[in-house]
Design a protein that fits this description.
By secondary structure, this protein is mostly beta strands. The chain folds into two domains: 54-60 and 283-462, no CATH class; 71-274, no CATH class. 10% of the residues lie in helices and 39% in strands. The strands form six sheets. Strands 5, 6, 7, 10, 11, 12, 15, 16, 17, 18, 19 and 20 form a twelve-stranded antiparallel β-sheet that branches. Strands 1, 2, 3, 21, 23, 28, 30 and 31 form an eight-stranded antiparallel β-sheet that branches. The longest helix has 14 residues, at 407-420. It is elongated.
Length: 464
């Protein structure tokens, strides 16, 4: 349905077919470039507010997780979105070659250290890299990796590694703000917060007893120890759980082998290490029902990483795209609200969202999203994602929801239709960016058209 109010500057009666085509639409006499120009030019324009908007939750996009600048780890039993789990694969490397000092020695202990990464610059703003309740007690299992990681291969969020022997476990919470004071060469130093897991001594002894060839290079070492995989258990000991960031490309993270009472040997992580995040989720019945359903839902669900997005179908945009007259799109806007009852300290609203379109590579409409290049909004600096350059065009959280402008995209659709007779509009996707690092955000969207939860409006001018 389209809201309508006839432009009072038009004299006479409109033809019946025109009235039927725009029944229910709201038209207002404004000036060309409304909200875009300060001089308010004198050419009449028309604003159309569309009511026939269909929204539903669909499966989220896949994305690469082998090239993140930080990784996330943890598990959440979200009261709305259900179980969400982030596991991480890391590859400790040699800090030095040779193993003569280890020969014939016995292990005292071996520890896995993952430094917390809780302060990131995301979307131009500082972001604490944690989600959920970090006071929750969770359990982690650590396994040896039982397959080779190919340097030239691409790994995505749904990758599941082949696990080998379990070499340790952890029960506790993520103490992001905990620090330790140590004295090094007479100087007092404060260590950064870290996750410290004591692994099985049998695993440490296995490292010490590796043959000398394994210590000649990282290539040889990775043939012996292909990597470690940290996997949260589904059952949370207390609380709803949390997902936090860990630094997996710095030497402060890695393995520390203790032997001979006072001796240590480090196997650090580094930028040369292969690191892969992988995600698992078990959404509730409402979300899965929408994913397999059709039609419109007044409440929809968006979730980054291994999650969901919202498909938005503005059916009546066809009347603009296929208009017989030559027109200029002055402004095209979609606004959508968040259900504020689902926003909390543990589950804050995403700082921004994306408006994207279905991938039509090869002429087929695929399930994945691609960005649209549209009106710049200087509040969001340009960024990149999966090889695409993303300009700012709206989408920042304003306390109630999000607003997106798609002027240039709609103008391109109008132009293509005029030239080819093909209407290439296939709807929009509303999604939370899976950032670098991947922030495990979620939002419950109010997509009830009747109460203004979602709105689509276009302002255009005729040229003839």
């Amino acid at each position: 349905m389209i809201k309508t109010k006839i432009n009072n500057k038009v004299k006479g009666f409109l033809p019946l077919f025109f009235l039927l085509a725009f029944f229910g639409c709201k038209k207002e006499t404004t000036e060309i470039g409304a909200n875009l120009r300060q001089d308010n030019g004198g050419i009449n324009s028309t604003t159309v507010d569309f009511q026939n908007v269909i929204c539903r939750t669909v499966t989220g996009d896949s994305f690469r997780t082998d090239n993140l600048n930080a990784n996330v780890l943890g598990v959440i039993n979200d009261p709305v979105f259900g179980l969400r789990k982030a596991s991480v694969l890391v590859q400790p490397l040699l800090s030095e070659t040779g193993n003569t000092e280890l020969v014939g020695k016995n292990v005292d202990s071996i520890k896995l250290v993952l430094r917390y990464d809780f302060d990131q610059l995301i979307g131009g703003a500082q972001h604490i890299l944690m989600y959920g309740d970090t006071s929750s007690v969770i359990e982690l299992d650590i396994y040896k990796l039982n397959e080779d990681i190919e340097d030239t291969a691409k790994y995505y969020n749904d990758y599941l590694p082949v696990l080998g022997d379990k070499v340790g476990e952890y029960t506790g919470n993520f103490s992001l703000l905990s620090t330790k004071t140590v004295i090094v060469d007479g100087d007092t130093q404060v260590s950064q917060p870290e996750l410290l897991v004591t692994l099985d001594n049998s695993f440490g002894q296995e490292l010490m007893d590796m043959d000398a060839a394994s210590f000649t290079s990282n290539t040889e070492f990775l043939m012996a120890l292909k990597g470690l995989v940290v996997v949260p258990r589904n059952n949370i000991v207390s609380g709803n759980g949390a997902i936090i960031g860990v630094e997996t490309n710095v030497s402060a993270s890695g393995l520390i082998l203790y032997y001979g009472d006072t001796l240590t040997r480090g196997f650090p992580l580094s930028s040369s290490s292969n690191t892969i995040n992988f995600f698992e989720s078990d959404p509730g019945a409402e979300i899965t029902g929408q994913m397999s359903g059709v039609g419109h839902y007044n409440t929809t669900y968006t979730q980054s990483v291994d999650g969901s997005k919202v498909f938005v179908e503005a059916i009546d945009l066809k009347s603009i795209i296929e208009m017989a007259d030559d027109i200029v799109i002055n402004e095209a806007i979609i606004t959508v609200k968040i259900d504020q009852s689902t926003v909390s300290k543990e589950y804050p609203a995403p700082s921004r969202m994306w408006l994207q379109v279905p991938d039509t590579a090869g002429g087929n409409i695929g399930p994945n999203s691609i960005p649209i290049n549209d009106l710049l909004n200087n509040l969001i600096p340009p960024s990149s994602w999966q090889g695409y350059v993303i300009p700012g065009y709206g989408g920042e959280y304003d306390g109630n929801g999000y607003e997106f402008r798609f002027n240039r995209y709609l103008q391109a659709l109008v132009k293509e239709y005029k030239e080819t007779g093909k209407n290439a509009f296939n709807g929009f996707f509303l999604s939370i960016p899976s950032d670098y690092p991947a922030i495990p955000s979620r939002a419950v969207m109010d997509t009830d058209v009747s109460n203004g939860g979602v709105k689509v409006s276009v302002n255009y001018s005729k040229l003839n």
